[in-house]
Structures are given as C-alpha cells and as structure tokens.
Write a structure and sequence with these properties.
Blueprint: H1 21-46, H2 61-68, E1 76-78, H3 84-89, H4 106-113, H5 147-160, E2 167-172, H6 179-190, E3 195-201, E4 204-205, E5 208-209, E6 230-234, H7 238-253, E7 259-264, H8 276-282, H9 285-293, H10 296-306, H11 312-315, H12 335-350
Parallel strand pairs: 1-2, 2-3, 3-7, 6-7
Antiparallel strand pairs: 4-5
Helix pairs in contact: 1-2, 1-10, 2-7, 4-12, 5-6
The structure holds thiamine diphosphate and magnesium ion.
Thiamine diphosphate binds near residues 142, 173, 204 and 205.
C-alpha cells in the first residue's frame, strides 16, 4: 500500500457517486446552514446582541459538511475553533431537530456562543469549548492539536470494548507544527488506531502564511513520516472532501489504522473577527480575492445543476455565495436554514446569564 493510496482497487467508484439525489440536496442545504450560522452571528454581534470573539468558518464549510456527512452515528469527532457548525451538523443528516441524534443541537451551540446558563459550558466559557461523551464529541480545547491524543485514547478504548467507531479530528495546518501532533499520530500509527486527522489548510495560521510554516507543498506529506496514508482533498468541493474522508474512514474501519486528509481551503476573513482589520493589512488583497473566488456553495450548486439534481430555476433561488455578512439577507438562504438557527438564537437569548457570585461554581470540585 502506497502512503498516498487508501483505496487502490481497480474500477473503484468515488464514494459520492453512491449518494442519492436527496443526499446531495441535503449536503447543499447543510452548506447554506453552515454559512448562515457564520454571517448571522456576525450580524448579531454588530447589532450588539452578542459578545465574544467569532472564529469564522466562512468559505471552509465544505470541509465540515463533506467530512461529517458519511460518518456513522457512533463515530466520534473533535471540532475546534474553526469548525463551530460541526457541533450541530454531526449526525444531522435529514434530522436536524431530532433530539435522539448523536451530536449537539443548535440550541446547545447557540447558548454556548452566547455564554448562557443553559449552555453545555454553563456560561463558564463560550465559543467552541464544549464536548460531550454522549454526543460523541471530544471536548475542544485551545491547545492546538491537543485533541489528537485524546482521539487516539477514545479510539483505543472503543476498540477494547469491541466497537468499530472511527474518530475524526479537525486541525488547522498551523497546528501540525506542534510536538503533540507528531506524538499522537505516531502513537495512533503504531497501534493502528482508527483516527482520521483532517488538516484544514486555510493558508494562514493567524498571521503566518503556509510557506513560513512548512517547507513542502502538501501538509498531507506529514503522513509519510508515520507510514500512514496522506490524502489531499479540494476543500472547496464538498464532494471531493466527502470522497477522501470516506476513503480514509473506510480504511480505518477495516482495521488498517490512521490516516491524514489535508483539505485545501482559504480563510476568507481574519483569524477571528477581532483580527479582520489587521488581516486586511497583513494579507495581500489580490491573494484574498483569489482565495475567496472558489466559494463552496457555488461549486456544489454547479455540480448539482450538471447532474440534473437542480433545475436552473431551483438553482437560482438562494444566492449566498461571495457575500460577506453585511451583504447577505435572509432571502439568500433556504427558509428552513433561517428557522433552525432562529430557534437556537431565541433559546440562547431566553437563557439567563448566571449571577457573578456563581462564577467559581463547577470550576473546581465542590467539597461539602
Ligand atoms: C499550542 C498553541 N499555540 C498557540 C496557540 C494560539 N493560536 C490559536 S489559533 C492559532 C492559529 C492556528 O492556525 P491553524 O492551526 O492554521 O488554524 P486556523 O486558525 O487557521 O484554522 C494560534 C497560533 C494555541 N491556541 N495553542
Ligand atoms: Mg490555518
């Protein structure tokens, strides 16, 4: 088996060709949902209803949607700061509102973002610092690459219990320079653990461009040092992400061990919204325009048109691509997308902010 080839079978069909028309349309809608989450939260902050830093996944939605869509409910994920929609898109296929699905609801995610009492973090923190065992979501931390060793442990435990779960971890390309990235993947490789490490190569780690992060073109080549497959996906094409992640997941599920999938994408805005103005200065305008050009919603729409899954009229109904938060309106998104997020935001706004004197509660073990 070559380090780059997971499935080398002759005549092997790309996994997306086995998706139904309904699946493809659901994937398209999920791209809108992920984008809407982003632009709407920025609007909420601008109108003064939300505080805290927002880490935009604008233009990176195909990585999140395409990697999650083919997973089993029992699989585990570890989203981080760039992957907020992943928390509510896990196991969401055709059942966004189903309370029995294994993932988080939009209400949980919104109340976390708003830092309210009913959130998983009970207002002790906000944004992505959540996770839950029963949701098969590994708790996100601020320590880059810090969830990969946890993922290896989760995979090991599941295997000992006779399970067949695969654990998918999400990491920016910058985090691959961390020592723990190497240690954890090496451990997973040696023990043949079913851990798929996604590298979201959005070309920037805060203010550092990729050529100052790594001396090779493809971060997927990091895999060569561990003797595991390293695949490269077009991170703007949700179906290519789906194909590469599904190949990696099948490889792991069959007992062959871990792999890396690099998804090439582009960070459309600043590192967080606090960095938007600065990023406009440290990044060349032409490069930013170039990087934003290949919008994942537009690329998916063109494919669905080509495959006959959308008529021209249907394809033109919602045009969210290429627009920043200030340019979009609710009419650019399917109504069910707007309704779903509205439910989350209303829940968050109705949830109380805890009194300040409760701040230390649940932080340390209570000894009575
Ligand atoms: C170990 C560690 N070092 C530094 C930081 C500060 N930090 C947070 S995000 C970030 C950039 C991450 O870049 P990348 O991994 O490419 O992810 P992206 O934000 O581009 O999605 C840095 C330096 C951190 N959280 N953890
Ligand atoms: Mg990055």
């Amino acid at each position: 088996m070559s380090a780059t080839t997971v499935s080398a079978k002759e005549g092997h069909k790309p996994p997306h060709q086995l998706l139904s028309k309904e699946d493809c349309l659901e994937i398209f809608k999920q791209l809108f949902l992920a984008r809407y989450f982003d632009v709407r939260l920025i609007k909420e902050k601008k109108r003064g209803r939300l505080k805290g830093t927002l880490y935009s996944s604008h233009n990176q939605e195909a990585v999140i949607v395409g990697s999650l869509y083919g997973l089993e409910s029992t699989d585990w994920i570890s989203p981080i700061h760039r992957d907020m929609p992943g928390f509510f898109l896990k196991d969401a296929k055709f059942r966004w509102r189903d309370e029995n699905r294994i993932g988080m609801s939009i209400k949980e995610v919104c109340s976390q973002v708003w830092g309210r009492s009913d959130s998983p973090g009970r207002a002790r923190d906000n944004w992505s610092h959540i996770g839950r065992r029963s949701a098969n979501i590994i708790h996100s931390t601020s320590m880059l690459a810090g969830t990969i060793p946890v993922a290896a442990g989760v995979a090991y435990a599941d295997r000992m219990k006779g399970g067949n779960a695969v654990v998918v971890t999400y990491n920016g390309e910058g985090s691959t320079a961390q020592g723990v990235f190497h240690e954890a993947i090496n451990y997973a490789a040696v023990h043949k653990l079913p851990v798929v490490t996604i590298i979201e190569n959005n070309q920037w780690a805060y203010g550092t461009p990729t050529h100052l992060e790594y001396s090779l073109e493809d971060f997927a080549r990091r895999a060569d040092g561990y003797g595991i497959p390293g695949l490269v996906a077009d991170g703007q094409d949700v179906f290519d992400v789906y194909d590469k992640v599904m190949e990696a997941v099948s490889f792991s599920r069959a007992g062959n061990g871990p792999s890396i999938v690099e998804c090439k994408t582009f960070r459309a805005y600043g590192h967080g919204d606090h960095d938007d103005d600065r990023a406009a200065k440290y990044r060349p305008t032409q490069g930013v325009e170039e990087g934003r050009k290949r919008d994942p919603i537009a690329i998916c729409r063109a494919k669905l048109l080509d495959w006959g899954y959308l008529s021209k009229e249907e394809a033109g109904l919602y045009m969210a691509e290429g627009k920043g938060s200030a340019q979009t309106t609710n009419e650019d998104f399917p109504p069910e997308v707007v309704e779903y997020l509205n439910e989350g935001i209303e829940f968050a706004l109705a949830s109380p902010v805890p009194p300040a004197e409760e701040g230390g509660k649940w932080v340390f073990k209570e000894i009575s």
